[in-house]
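Why do we bother with a discrete structure alphabet at all? Because it lets us treat a fold like text: something you can write down, compare, and reason about line by line. To make this less abstract, here is a complete entry for Molecular chaperone DnaJ. Read it the way you would read a sentence in a foreign language you are learning: slowly, and without expecting to understand everything at once.
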Amino acid sequence: MPDSPLSDSPYEVLGVPADADAAALRIAYRRALRLTHPDTGGDPARFNAVQIAWELVGTPEARAAFDRGAGNGSTPAPTRAAWAPTPPTPRRDSRPLARSYGHPGGLSRQRYLDLVREWAGRGVTLDDPYDPALVRSAPRDIRHVLADALAEEATARSLATLGIAYTVWHDVATDAAGPGEPPKLDHIVLGPTGLFMIQSEDWGGPVGIRRGELTGEVLGGERPMRALALRAKAIGRAARVKPTALLIVVPDDHAEEPLQLGGTVRGAVVALVRRSRLASAVREGLPGSAHLGGTEVMEVRSRLQAVVRFA
């Protein structure tokens, strides 16, 4: 099962339609091996992806299991959809968590449900809108919305571990979003290491940062850091506060380095952060980013609490 709704399916990796017969699948696999083999100048990552794809759909048993939504041929089909909302799990320790407000990923999940039902068509009943086969067949823009919802939820779980010194707001409404963009800022984090405005993203491929903006073929002309800066500015103006850092968080394998700085925007340090590095980056504070004193943290929290609305 792909890790993200935007991940290529095994059929896409092999370059065949999902209904290709066994012979066509085998031919495509052998061709993909030749093209991607490192010994002939191929990309090792793509070569590995081809082998994994074959493991998932290379035998009738594995293919049937994959098409049902199972992760591989040796495991049964899951009893619940891979991307359905997961219930909270009981905590195993007593360490205090960060104070959190809002519903991370809530608006993105609702947008996904609206879009996938509209795409399926009127009068069509979707027994499970998170069914893996349905998700894989949906247009990329719909899968992207679901991928973002999952990214926001994963970021929220990471931010919760910051501890009682931090306050986190999720899905904060803002009027600064551009056409077609969700009218919200994904996360605001306040603590002694600064005021962080954060977007959680998953474009399904690698991105970098240069001169204060993200780069990468998967962006399709988007300017994510500019959009984040506009949202942060709108919220900061309303609350009369200044963010000290603007962060965009992506899956670990979509960024070359754990933390990449990109200069400053209106005095706020901008950075691209791997998801696994996020909590430590916030706890430590970004290089060049101002820390806040205890009185200042309380004042900024009060101002934000007075103006924050949830999307």
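What the structure line is telling us, in plain words: The chain is about 40% helix and 15% strand. Residues 10-68 form a domain with the Helix Hairpins fold (CATH 1.10.287.110).
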